[in-house]
C-alpha cells in the first residue's frame, strides 16, 4: 500500500485543557443557540458536571432543558424520547455532557430532530441527509471519543444489536475536552475507558485505511495511554495523569474517526448489542487475540505498536517473537487494569458464538481490519477469548 | 474484498460520494432564495405590506406599495411610527391580543427554528380599519388589516394596506345609478311592475295610485289577482296571463291591451308592455302599464262628436225636405175638414149646386168615421212637425238668451217639472223615486241658456226614471236618483280626466301654478251628474245612446230624440261635454260639464 493514497481527515473544532468545559456557554451562543437541550446521564449529573455546564449556558442567556434518560448502551427508544423533549421544549441546540453514551444519544437526537422519522432509519454510513442542530460535546470520560468522532452507536432494542450510524454529519461542532471533568471517574470506569481508547489507537494504526496524519495521532495515543493509564490507576486524583489520559483518548479518537477501526470493535459491538456487555471490557478482552490474528497482515504496523507500548527490540526481533510479546503485553495491561474474565464468565455461552460472529461480520468496522476475516475466523476469535 | 465492502470502506474513511461534513449552507441558501422570492412577491404586491414593532408601532419594513401609499421613500418610512405613514392613525392603538398569553418563556426566549414544521402558526389578534389617506390627486381609501405575530419571542404587527378607493367609488357609482333608476322608476307616469316567478316584486308610486293599493300589498300579488277573471279581448285571464308571461320570458317582448281592477273593484283599461331582463342571473319581467281609460274616452268622444255632427246635418236636411210635403198634407187635411163644415157659405153653395144635403153628407162622414181619419192625419202631421222641428234644431245654433246660472237651482227646477209631468207621474211613478242630492258648496255659476239646460236636465231625469221602471229591485234596494253638482278641472281625455282620478290635490296644485283657464287642462267646469240605480246599460247601448232615433224603449214611448237633443244643446250650443258611464245591472251615470263663469281674480 502506498502512503499517498487518498485520505481524508475530519475533526471538530475542539478546545483541550483545564477548564475547557467552562466554555460551553460561549460556544453554544456563538453557534446561535438560544435554548439548549442538555443531554447527560444520572451518574454524570450526580457528579455535578451537567449542572456546571448548564450554568455556563445560562450565564450566556441560553435557556436549558435537561434530558438524563440515557443508559450505558444508549437505546433507540431513549433517542426518540430525547428528540420529543427537544421538540416539546422548543430547543435549537444540543449540549452533550458525559461519556460515550450521552454523546451518542445526543447525536441520535440531533439526527431525528433535523431529519424526522425514527433513528433506526439512519443506520449505516452516510445515510443522514440533513445536518443536525448545533452540537457541543463536553466529554467526562477519556475513552469513547464520541466527542471527536463521526460515529454514533445506538442499541436497536427490538433486534438486540448495536447499530453504527457513521456520517461526517455526526462530527460535533465543538468538543470541549476538559481533563478536570474526568477526575471524578471511578477506578473501574477509568480502566475500562482507558483500554477502549487504547484499542481505538491500535485498531486505527493497524487499519487498512490509516494515513500519515492518523498515524501520528494513533502512535502518540498508544504511547501516551501506555503510561498514563497506569499513572491514573495508581493515583485517581492526579490532574496530570488525568490530562495525559484525556489527551491520549482524544488523539486516539482523532485517529480512529478517520482511519476507522477493526475486528476488535466489530466483535465487541456484537457482544454489546446481543448481551449488553460493557464496551471497554470487551475490547480489552478481545484486543490481544485480534492483534495476534491480524499480525501477519500488517507486521510492520504492529511492530510500531509494540514499540510504542515499550516492547523491547520490537523493530528488529523476528515477527513471531514480536507478535507473541505484543500479545502478552496487551494481556498484561488488561490484567493490570483489573480485568481477567473470559467470555464465559461474562455469561456468554458457546452456542451464542456463531450468532455473535454472524453479527460481527455485518459490522462496518470489519472493512478496515488489516486482515480480511470470515465468520468462521471471527467465531474462532470468540472461542479464543472464551 | 467484495465490492459492497469496498464501497463501505470508502464511505467510512470519508471518500464516498456524500462523505463530507454536512453544511447548513445549501439549506440556508435555499431559504435565502425563498426569502428573496418572498420579498420580490411582497414588492410586486398591489397591497401595501408593513412590518411594525408591536409595542411602538414603529415601521420596521415596508414594501413598495406601502411606500407609495405613504408617499415616503423606504428610508424615510422605516424607523418612524405608523402614523407617519398614515396620519389618520395618530394617537391610535390597535387592540391586538398577543398569542403569547398562554405561554410566557420562564427562562429566556425560545425559537421555533427546529420545530416550525410541526407547530401550527401562532394565531394572534386581528384588527381592521378603513382610513382616508391624503395623496396627490384624489385621496385614497385604504383598508388596513393589522395582525399580531410572535416570532422568536418578539412581538410584531403586520399591517396590510389595501387600496379600496376603486371599490368604494364603484360602490358609490352603483348606488348613484341605483338612485337614478329608482327616480326614473318612481317618476314614470306609467305604472311599472317588476315581476319574478309570476309575482310582482316591486312597483312604482304610479302603480300604487293606479291600483289603489299600497306597495306591500302589490308586492305579494300576481297580475291575475289584479284583473277580472275574464279579459274582454283574450278570454280567461289566467290563461292569457300565462301565455303573455311565458312569451316575454322566452325573450319575445309583449305589447297588449288588458283590463285591470282597482282595489275597489272598478275595472280600467290599459296597454301593457312586458319584456324580460336579467338581474343577478335570474330572469325578471318589467311590465309598463299605461292607463288608457282617458285615451279611450277621448277617442270615443271624438268618434261620437263626428258621428253626431254628420247625423245632425243629415237629419236637418231631411227635416227641411220633409217639411214642405208635411205642410201640404197638414194644410190639405185642415182644408178638408173645413170644407165639410156646414154653415160655411162656400160649402153651402157647393152643396146646393150639387143638390146634396150637407147635413146628410156629414152624417155619412160620421157613419164612416171619415172625420176622425182626417183628425188623425192632422195629429200625425203635428207630431211629425214636432220631430222635424227637433231635427232642424240639430243644425241650428241656439239664439236663446245666455246668463250665469246656478246649475243646482236649474236641477231642482227640472226635478219639480218632472214631478209634475203627467207622463212621468202616471207611467213611472216619479214620486216614489228617492232623490239624493250631493251639491258641493262653492260651485261656480255656468254661462248657459237656462231653458235649454233645464230641458236637458229634464230629459236626463226622464231617462233615469224610465230606466228605473225597467228594473225589478231586489229586497232592500229602492229606486234612487243621485244628483251631484260640483267643480272639475279639465275636460275628459285631457290630463285631469273626467273623474279627476289623478289626485285631486295634485291637479289643483298644478292648476293654481298657472294662469287660470290658460291651459285646456285647467279649464274649470261645472259638473252635473244624474245617476240612477236602474238596470244600467251594456257597452253597445252606451256608445250609441246619444244617436238620434236610437232607443231601447218600446215604440211609442218618446221620440228617441231626447238625448240627442240634449247632446247638441250641451256640446254644440254650450261648448260643454256630456258623457255616460254605466255598470250594467248596477247604475248609470250621465255627466254634464259646462264651462264655469270665470271668477274675478
Ligand atoms: Fe470503542
UniProtKB/TrEMBL annotation, chain A:
UniProt keywords, alphabetically: NAD, Oxidoreductase
Organism: Nitratidesulfovibrio oxamicus
Domain Alcohol dehydrogenase iron-type/glycerol dehydrogenase GldA: 13-179
The protein's required cofactors: Fe cation
SUPFAM superfamilies xref list: Dehydroquinate synthase-like
InterPro entries: ADH_Fe/GldA, ADH_Fe_C, ADH_Fe_CS, Alcohol_dehydrogenase_Fe
Similarity section: Belongs to the iron-containing alcohol dehydrogenase family.
Protein name: Iron-containing alcohol dehydrogenase
Family matches, as NCBIfam families: Fe_ADH_ErcA
Domain Fe-containing alcohol dehydrogenase-like C-terminal: from-to ranges: 190-385
TrEMBL record, chain B:
UniProt enzyme class: transferase
Keyword Nucleotidyltransferase: no
NCBIfam families per record: sensory_box
Reaction(s) the record says it catalyses: ATP + protein L-histidine = ADP + protein N-phospho-L-histidine
InterPro entries associated with the record: HATPase_C_sf, HATPase_dom, His_kinase_dom, HisK_dim/P_dom, HisK_dim/P_sf, PAS, PAS-assoc_C, PAS-like_dom_sf
Domain PAC, first and last residues per copy: 124-176
EC numbers for this chain: 2.7.13.3
Residue span(s) of domain Histidine kinase: 317-598
Keywords: ATP-binding, Coiled coil, Kinase, Nucleotide-binding, Phosphoprotein, Transferase, Two-component regulatory system
Pfam families for the chain: HATPase_c, HisKA, PAS, PAS_8
Listed name of the protein: histidine kinase
Coiled coil: 160-187
Keyword RNA-binding found: no
Amino acid at each position: 500500500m502506498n502512503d499517498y493514497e487518498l485520505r481524508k481527515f475530519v475533526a471538530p473544532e475542539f478546545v483541550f485543557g483545564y477548564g475547557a468545559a467552562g466554555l460551553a456557554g460561549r460556544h453554544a451562543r456563538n453557534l446561535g443557540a438560544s435554548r439548549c437541550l442538555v443531554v447527560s446521564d444520572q451518574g454524570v449529573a450526580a457528579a455535578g458536571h451537567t449542572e456546571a455546564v448548564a450554568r455556563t449556558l445560562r450565564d450566556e442567556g441560553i435557556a436549558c432543558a435537561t434530558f438524563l434518560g440515557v443508559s450505558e448502551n444508549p437505546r433507540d427508544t431513549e433517542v426518540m424520547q430525547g428528540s420529543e423533549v427537544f421538540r416539546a421544549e422548543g430547543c435549537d441546540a444540543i449540549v452533550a455532557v458525559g461519556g460515550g453514551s450521552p454523546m451518542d444519544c445526543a447525536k441520535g437526537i440531533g439526527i431525528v430532530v433535523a431529519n424526522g422519522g425514527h433513528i433506526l432509519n439512519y443506520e449505516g454510513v452516510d445515510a443522514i441527509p440533513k445536518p443536525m442542530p448545533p452540537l457541543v460535546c463536553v466529554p467526562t470520560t477519556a475513552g469513547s471519543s464520541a466527542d471527536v468522532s463521526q460515529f454514533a452507536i445506538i442499541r436497536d432494542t427490538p433486534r438486540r444489536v448495536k447499530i453504527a450510524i457513521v456520517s461526517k454529519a455526526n462530527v460535533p461542532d465543538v468538543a470541549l475536552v476538559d481533563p478536570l471533568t474526568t477526575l471524578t471517574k471511578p477506578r473501574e470506569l477509568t480502566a475500562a475507558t482507558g483500554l477502549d481508547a487504547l484499542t481505538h489507537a491500535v485498531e486505527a494504526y493497524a487499519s487498512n485505511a490509516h494515513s500519515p496524519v492518523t498515524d501520528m495521532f494513533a502512535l502518540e495515543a498508544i504511547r501516551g495511554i501506555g503510561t498514563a493509564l497506569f499513572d491514573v490507576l495508581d493515583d485517581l486524583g492526579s490532574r496530570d495523569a488525568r490530562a495525559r489520559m484525556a489527551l491520549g483518548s482524544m488523539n486516539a479518537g482523532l485517529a480512529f474517526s478517520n482511519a476507522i477501526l477493526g475486528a476488535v470493535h466489530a466483535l465487541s459491538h456484537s457482544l454489546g448489542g446481543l448481551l449488553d456487555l460493557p464496551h471497554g471490557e470487551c475490547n480489552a478482552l478481545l484486543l490481544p487475540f485480534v492483534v495476534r490474528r491480524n499480525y501477519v497482515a500488517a507486521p510492520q504496523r504492529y511492530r510500531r505498536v509494540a514499540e510504542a507500548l515499550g516492547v523491547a527490540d520490537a523493530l528488529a526481533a523476528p515477527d513471531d517473537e514480536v507478535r507473541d510479546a505484543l500479545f502478552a503485553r496487551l494481556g498484561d495491561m488488561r490484567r493490570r487494569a483489573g480485568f481477567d474474565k473470559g467470555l464465559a464468565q461474562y455469561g456468554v455461552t458457546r452456542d451464542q458464538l456463531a450468532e455473535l460472529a454472524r453479527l460481527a461480520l455485518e459490522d462496518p468496522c470489519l472493512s478496515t481490519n488489516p486482515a480480511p476475516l470470515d465468520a468462521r475466523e471471527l467465531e474462532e476469535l470468540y472461542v479464543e477469548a472464551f | 474484498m467484495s465490492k459492497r465492502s469496498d464501497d463501505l470502506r470508502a464511505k467510512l474513511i470519508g471518500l464516498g460520494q456524500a462523505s463530507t461534513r454536512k453544511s447548513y449552507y445549501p439549506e440556508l441558501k435555499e431559504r435565502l432564495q425563498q426569502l428573496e422570492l418572498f420579498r420580490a412577491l411582497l414588492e410586486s404586491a398591489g397591497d401595501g405590506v408593513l412590518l411594525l414593532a408591536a409595542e411602538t408601532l414603529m415601521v420596521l419594513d415596508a414594501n413598495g406599495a406601502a411606500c407609495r401609499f405613504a408617499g415616503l421613500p423606504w428610508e424615510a418610512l422605516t424607523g418612524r411610527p405608523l402614523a407617519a405613514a398614515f396620519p389618520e392613525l395618530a394617537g391610535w392603538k390597535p387592540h391586538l391580543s398577543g398569542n403569547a398569553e398562554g405561554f410566557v418563556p420562564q427562562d429566556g426566549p425560545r425559537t421555533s427554528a427546529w420545530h416550525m414544521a410541526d407547530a401550527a402558526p401562532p394565531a394572534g389578534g386581528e384588527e381592521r380599519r378603513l382610513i382616508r389617506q391624503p395623496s396627490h390627486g384624489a385621496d385614497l381609501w385604504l383598508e388596513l388589516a393589522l395582525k399580531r405575530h410572535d416570532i422568536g419571542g418578539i412581538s410584531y404587527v403586520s399591517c396590510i394596506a389595501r387600496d379600496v378607493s376603486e371599490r368604494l367609488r364603484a360602490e358609490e357609482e352603483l348606488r348613484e345609478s341605483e338612485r337614478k333608476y329608482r327616480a326614473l322608476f318612481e317618476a314614470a307616469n306609467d305604472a311599472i311592475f317588476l315581476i319574478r316567478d309570476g309575482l310582482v316584486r316591486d312597483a312604482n308610486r304610479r302603480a300604487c295610485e293606479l291600483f289603489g293599493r299600497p306597495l306591500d300589498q302589490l308586492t305579494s300579488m300576481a297580475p291575475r289577482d289584479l284583473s277580472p277573471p275574464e279579459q274582454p279581448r283574450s278570454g280567461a285571464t289566467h290563461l292569457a296571463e300565462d301565455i303573455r308571461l311565458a312569451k316575454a320570458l322566452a325573450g319575445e317582448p309583449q305589447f297588449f291591451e288588458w283590463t285591470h281592477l282597482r282595489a275597489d273593484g272598478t275595472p280600467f283599461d290599459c296597454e301593457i308592455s312586458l319584456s324580460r331582463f336579467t338581474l343577478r342571473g335570474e330572469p325578471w319581467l318589467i311590465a309598463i302599464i299605461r292607463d288608457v281609460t282617458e285615451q279611450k274616452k277621448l277617442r270615443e268622444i271624438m268618434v261620437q262628436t263626428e258621428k253626431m255632427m254628420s247625423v245632425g246635418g243629415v237629419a236637418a236636411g231631411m227635416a227641411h225636405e220633409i217639411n214642405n210635403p208635411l205642410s201640404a198634407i197638414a194644410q190639405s187635411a185642415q182644408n178638408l175638414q173645413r170644407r165639410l163644415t156646414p154653415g160655411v157659405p162656400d160649402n153651402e153653395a157647393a152643396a146646393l149646386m150639387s143638390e146634396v144635403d150637407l147635413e146628410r153628407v156629414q152624417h155619412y162622414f160620421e157613419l164612416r168615421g171619415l172625420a176622425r181619419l182626417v183628425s188623425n192625419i192632422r195629429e200625425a202631421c203635428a207630431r211629425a212637425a214636432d220631430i222635424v222641428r227637433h231635427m232642424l234644431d240639430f243644425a241650428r245654433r241656439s239664439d236663446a238668451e245666455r246668463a250665469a246660472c246656478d246649475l243646482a237651482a236649474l236641477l231642482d227646477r227640472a226635478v219639480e217639472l218632472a214631478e209634475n209631468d203627467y207622463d212621468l207621474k202616471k207611467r213611472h211613478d216619479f214620486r216614489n223615486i228617492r232623490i239624493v242630492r250631493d251639491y258641493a258648496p262653492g260651485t261656480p255659476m255656468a254661462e248657459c241658456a237656462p231653458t235649454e239646460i233645464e230641458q236637458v236636465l229634464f230629459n236626463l231625469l226622464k231617462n233615469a226614471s224610465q230606466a228605473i221602471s225597467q228594473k225589478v229591485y231586489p229586497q232592500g234596494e229602492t229606486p234612487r236618483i243621485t244628483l251631484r253638482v260640483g267643480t272639475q278641472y279639465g275636460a275628459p281625455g285631457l290630463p285631469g280626466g273626467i273623474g279627476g282620478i289623478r289626485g285631486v290635490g295634485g291637479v289643483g296644485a298644478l292648476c293654481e301654478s298657472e294662469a287660470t283657464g290658460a291651459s285646456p287642462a285647467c279649464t274649470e267646469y261645472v259638473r252635473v251628474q244624474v245617476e240612477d240605480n236602474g238596470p244600467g246599460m251594456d257597452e253597445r247601448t252606451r256608445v250609441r245612446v246619444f244617436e238620434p232615433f236610437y232607443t231601447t224603449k218600446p215604440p211609442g214611448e218618446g221620440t228617441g230624440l231626447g238625448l240627442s237633443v240634449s247632446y247638441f244643446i250641451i256640446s254644440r250650443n254650450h261648448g260643454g261635454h256630456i258623457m255616460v258611464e254605466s255598470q250594467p245591472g248596477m247604475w248609470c251615470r250621465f255627466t254634464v260639464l259646462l264651462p264655469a263663469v270665470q271668477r274675478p281674480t
